[in-house]
Design goal:
6-stranded antiparallel sheet; 7 helices; two-stranded antiparallel sheet; alpha+beta; globular; 243 residues
């Protein structure tokens, strides 16, 4: 039937994205192993928080990260994925962090996915930079970063945002996404900027579904909620690869 055919097409598209994400995860994991091998252990302050990561980890991690940038992508890549962000961070806190660390005006797209069941961050974000040079600079700065505004011992890992690359890809991917539905609080949605000033997100080209709508009691959440599920699976796959 037509419904089955469309479902099969969606499955094939999802499978292709997951395969691409898995390939990128393997490449990222390999670069992270090299960073870890060259990174000394960080002391604790007695409360479980890492201290002085900028002086003890960053010089070697930055050099490793710059080499990873050269190996892991082309000269046109501008979209990065920041992993291992604190789950109690928010999109606006991430924006403040980027600005505080000297990157205001360097990015034009930021999205920090959340779990719509718990309304909590998933611990990673997509950031598109205005050019490849800025992407390399952000990569080198944040790979190994752990200077948080909240208590956390997480250390950032950076990868390319495969399969999305560039502002056009990012906005087109999310303009019709259920995450843009009116029922979703504004501070959970992706944002776009120009010269450091926030601009309205491109208008949707079709009706946006409610991500919390369930067609059947036993059916999974559709739309953005199902996207969150796929992203969570990819995250678990990455952890399995690194193990």
């Amino acid at each position: 039937s037509q419904v089955a055919y469309q479902a099969a097409q969606r499955f094939e598209s999802t499978a292709a994205r997951l395969r691409a994400a898995a390939d990128e995860a393997r490449a990222c994991a390999e670069s992270l192993r090299r960073v870890a091998a060259a990174t000394p252990a960080m002391p604790s302050d007695g409360n479980g928080f890492r201290q002085e990561c900028t002086t003890q980890v960053r010089p070697q991690a930055t050099a490793q990260a710059k080499r990873a940038v050269g190996r892991g992508g082309t000269s046109g890549n501008t979209t990065i994925m920041l992993r291992n962000l604190p789950n109690n961070y928010s999109r606006d806190m991430l924006l403040q962090l980027l600005d505080r660390e000297g990157f205001r005006g360097s990015y034009d797209f930021v999205y920090y996915p959340v779990d719509f069941k718990r309304w909590a961050g998933l611990g990673y974000a997509f950031v598109n930079l205005i050019n490849h040079g800025e992407a390399s600079r952000v990569w080198g700065h944040f790979d190994g970063f752990c200077k948080w505004d909240l208590p956390s011992n997480k250390v950032v890992e950076v990868c390319w945002g495969t399969p999305l690359q560039g502002l056009a890809d990012c906005t087109e991917r999310y303009r019709n996404s259920p995450v843009m539905h009116d029922s979703i609080p504004e501070h959970f949605k992706p944002v776009v900027f120009k010269n450091g000033i926030r601009f309205p997100f491109p208008e949707p080209t079709k009706k946006i579904r409610n991500p919390r709508f369930q067609r059947k009691r036993s059916a999974p959440l559709v739309g953005a909620a199902s996207e969150i599920g796929r992203e969570a699976k990819a995250e678990r796959a990455l952890r399995h690869i690194r193990a």
